[in-house]
Amino acid sequence: MEKTALKVNGMQCRHCAETVTNALTPLASEIVVDLDDGKVSFAYDPQKTDLETIKSTINDIGFETAD
């Protein structure tokens, strides 16, 4: 498992955090959304998915990942 964190622009409330968590649940585990820092941290299996797919999933639900 790889652990990482991404900056996610546009997350402002608990609903945003839940939306991101629900979208990432099929792809990642140990998902923690930090609204104060605008980051989501998680673990994922690089043999099952990649970081670009995770970023795309976040972007597809209306948030923007920052590199």
Question: Can you offer a commentary on this structure?
Answer:
- This protein is α+β, with helices and mostly antiparallel strands.
- It has one domain (2-66): Alpha-Beta Plaits.
- Helix content is 31%, strand content 34%.
- The protein contains two helices and four strands.
- It has helices spanning 14-24, 51-60, and strands spanning 2-9, 29-34, 39-44, 64-66.
- It has a four-stranded antiparallel sheet, with helices on one face.
- Strand 2 (29-34) and strand 3 (39-44) form a beta hairpin.
- The longest helix is centred in the first third of the chain and has 11 residues, at 14-24.
- The protein is globular.
- It starts with a strand and ends with a strand.
- The model has no long low-confidence stretch (mean pLDDT 96).
Instruction: Report low-confidence residues grouped into runs of 5 or more.
Output: none
Query: Which percent range fits the helix content?
Result: 25-40%
User: In whole angstroms, how far apart are the ends?
Assistant: 21 Å
Shape: globular
Query: What is the chain-wise order of helices and strands?
Result: EHEEHE
Number of domains: 1
* Overall pLDDT: 96
What would CATH call the class? Alpha Beta
CATH fold type? Alpha-Beta Plaits
Strand content: 25-35%
State the strand order across the main sheet.
2-3-1-4
Please give the count of helices: 2
Structure class: alpha+beta
Strand runs, count: 4
Radius of gyration: 11 Å
